[in-house]
Every structure is written in C-alpha cells, then in structure tokens.
Give the backbone structure.
Amino acid sequence: MPLHTLFELAAKSIAKAIRNETIWLNFPLDTKSSNAIVRAFLMDDCWDRNDFKKLEAFKKQLAVTKIDFGMRDLNAEAIRSLKNFNLISLDIGRLEQLMDDYPDDSSNDETLDIVSLFIQSMSNGSRSSLIHLGLPWQEFIGGWEKRVSKILPNLQSMNISSAIFNDRFQLSNFCTSFSHLLALNISFAYYLPSLQGIGNIKNLQKLSMSYVYFDDINGYKELSDLKSLKYLDISGTVATAQIDTNSIKNLLAAEVRLEALEFLDCSWTSVTEHQLRTFAKNHPSLRTIAAICTPCNQTTIPGIKMINASSLSECLEFLVLTDHIDMASDFMKEVYQNQKASRGNLEISELRQVRKALLFVLRESDDEENKFWTVVWYLESGLLELELSISSVTTDIPHMIELCYNAFNTDIMIEEREDYVKFVLRMFEAVVNALAPGILFPDRALKFVFEKTLDLVDGFPEYQSEEIKIITQIDKWMSGDQYQNMCTNFELHGRVQNYLNST
C-alpha cells in the first residue's frame, strides 16, 4: 500500500470541508479528483448516512464515476442522490433500512424491490454506462435478475459475495440473466450446492469463489465450460465449518480443465505439493499461483511465479492489492510469531511491507477485535523496534501510532487491555527514541503521544518509569516552535507539568 500522497491528502481535506459545509467549488473537477474526493468522503470515520446528500450541492463540479459505500447503512435519500452522477462502478452498502421505501408489493415476504430502486435512483446515463455492480445480500423481488440485467445492459463485473442461495435465488438463474459478465465474485456464498449454470457465462475471465467449497466433486465440473477463464480464486477454509478444505483435490478428481487459466489463488487451503504440481501440469497457460499459508509455503514450480512464504514482501503486497483483509491479518500473525520465535533478520523492504499491511488492516477492517490482536502481534514481535534500529522515522509512522492506539483502546477489548498496555508504551518509546537532530516529529503526533501517555499514566500507574522516559525524550527533541505551541495549549501543558512535578 503506497503512502498517502499530496493528492490523497488534498482529497481528504476537500471531503472534510464538504462534510462540514465550509467549502464552495466554483469550477469543475476531473474524474480522478472527483472519485478520490467521494471515496475519502465515504471512508471518513465520521460518516453519517444523512451526509451523502451534501454532495448534491456539488453535482456540477464533481465528475463522479465510481461510488463504493462499503458496508455503510444507507437511507432512501442517499440512494436517490445517486441520480446526480453518471456512474460506471457502484458498490451498494447495506439496504436493510430501505425495506419501507422500496417494498415488494407482489409478496407478503420482507423482500426489497431492487428493480424500482435502480430505476428511481439512477440516471439514464448511469444505467446504460454502469460496468461494475456490487450488491449486498438482501432478499430481493422474485425474478430480479432478469429485470436488472435489462435495466443495466452493459454490466461486465458483479460482486454478490456473501449471498444466500435458496429456492428464490439460484446461481443458474443468475448466470442465465447475466451471461455477458467478464468478472464475478461469489465468495463466502451460503448454501450454494454447486456451480451449475456457471457455464452460461461463456466469456467469464475472472471468478472469485473464496471460502466456497463443495464436498461433491460434481459441483465443480461446469468450470471446464469457461474457455476464457484466466483468473480463479478458490482460497480459504470454510468459515462456517472451520475445517481444512482442498478445492484443488476436487478439481483434479472432477478432471476440470481451464485452458486459458493464467492465475490461481489457493491460499489457506490444505493443498499438497503433489496436487499443486499436477494441477499446474494440467494447465500449461498457468503463470502465477498464490499459495499463502498452505503446505506449499516453500514450493517452487519451474515456469510459474509462486506467491508463498518464500517471499514475504510479495505475499503481503498481494494480500493488500486484492483486499484480503482477514487473510492479511492471519498471515501477519504467522509472521509475527515466527519473528518472535526466531528473531531472524528481515530486510528493511520486508519490514516496511509488513507495516503497510498493518496499516491496511487497521484502515480497512470493520472487525475491532481483529484489529486489536493484529496490533498486539505486531508490537509483541518487536518488528517496529527492529525497523527503527536500521531506518529513520518515516512519514506514515505517526499515523500508524494513532491507528494502533485506537485499535488497542477499543471498548470491546477493555478486559484484555491491561495485559498488553506495555506494548503500546513500548511503541511510543521506540518511536521517540528514534528521534534525532533533523527529524521533526509532526505536531499532531507529538500532541497525540503526550496525551495518550498521560492517559495511560492515569490508568496504569505501575508503568510510571516507562512513561517518564517517553515524555522526557520528546521534551529533549522538541523544536522551539513545537514547545511554544504546546505552552499555548494550556490544558496539555498543565497536565505535563503536573505529571513531571509529581514524579
């Protein structure tokens, strides 16, 4: 994950000003800038579903083509605001609150009329130009697939991950309706008995079915009908059963052949080296295999690029680029545990890649417990101290400190906090110890470390000696302007002085 650029920081600043209604744009922005601003607007921790309407005032200035609501709760006003933009990509958030606004009048069941939603909320331009659509799981009106495919005739990519398949929603019907797709994501599907019907999408090039597994090998047979498939993701252990799965074994048994396949992801499965070599031999077009956290962690296959434990940096980069948040966290746990056990020397490039992956999890994950343990594993491993011992404080470390502390300080993990507070203090200490002449600690980060160290003093007085080291070290390297600014912050300056006078 790249560091924040000036472009990204500017987008965040404008997004914040739009939310606070403190800016007026009197000139049009290009598509790249517009999309970045809206993305920053939606990713803000202060998001409120009523805020989206604030973008309406800038519909002539923002040339927005991509909107991703993630898992945000949406209301009817936010959905109707979509009509202000001509979109080519739309990932819709949670729709539970829209049942009363778009009811299915033809049924007594609690189903949502997704057809009316698209007709009423999207402009004619968006409906004809939309290429990608991400839909959250929701019980939709019967026959919605065929009707939506006509409303959105140029769709090439769909994400229906976490869908629940049943009598009302069957993969075969879906594939018949959207037979022109090039990319499909059905990861985390529930109650999907087989891939029957997938062959109807004749030109499909990318299929993601992470955490989808069939005990019956016949469930995979229709994959052979996908003559254009280049990318296949069959990674993951079945989450509901917590058992090892091995789709490669079943693909071999079903004699599936994918003549165009170039990329395979079978990470987090129990695939053996023999099975993987056999699969590669059967697919001469195969160029890259991701086999992270498998028995093939060190496997090499001539002519094929392997993404496995033999290259830490490539593994982490792959997980970040493919948005595998949970897998990135799990893999980092293994990295931390291995580092803690062996204290082996990692290259500076690997250390930085680990930190980028950490930032990815802390920024993108909605699982507070997962973020807490990811921070604990990272700090306990000593990788931060190792990086700072051979490198200087980089621009993203102050931001990382804040994210780590916030993950540590989450309310749902309050009972575990006491056992790991020493690692947070060790993080603060490692960073301030890395300061030196010419390395200026940002004002915001300086204030944050001061305040949070004092908060920890109040809650954990037994760590007073560590806290003194942190505060005195910051005081040692503080610039004149920073010291003057802190003195004008009477509350913070008073807390620091009272603490130092009491020790």
